[in-house]
Design goal:
12% strand, alpha+beta, 92 residues
């Protein structure tokens, strides 16, 4: 689901946090492996992506999950971009 701009939401049903991170790291690697062609005589443009991951619980609502995933995404960007970070709560 496209949230807006360059932000997308991916829901992985029946997938725990660790497994989701593995899946999204594969997506990240696949995106990075395919630079964007921008015209003849010009080098392709490298493309990278960062992911913030949050895991739902029985008490989660969508707003809480979105905030948690956004915090994890901010952490991924802060830690150098082109990476996957998980929200672990309490600033961890």
């Amino acid at each position: 689901y496209r949230m807006g701009g360059e932000e997308f939401l991916i829901c992985l049903k029946r997938t725990g946090l660790a497994e989701a991170m593995v899946v999204l790291d594969r997506v990240r690697e696949e995106v990075a492996a395919r630079p964007l062609p921008i015209g003849s005589g010009r080098d392709p443009l490298p493309v990278t992506c960062s992911f913030g991951v949050a895991e739902a619980s029985a008490q989660s609502d969508i707003d809480d999950l979105m905030v948690a995933a956004d915090q994890a995404l901010y952490q991924a960007k802060h830690n150098g971009r082109n990476r996957v970070e998980a929200y672990r709560g309490n600033g961890a």
